[in-house]
Amino acid sequence: MRLRNVRGARDVLAENSYVLTEQESGPGLWSKVFGNENPVYMEIGMGKGKFLFEMAALHPDINYIGVEMYASVLIRAVQKLDKDKELPNIRFLNVQAESLGNFFAPDEVDQIYLNFSDPWPKARHAKRRLTSPVFLKRYEGFLKNGGLLEFKTDNRELFEYSLESIESGGWELLSRTFDLHADAELCEGNVMTEYEQKFSRQGQAICKLTAACRKQDENP
Question: pTM for the whole thing?
Answer without folding.
Answer: 0.91
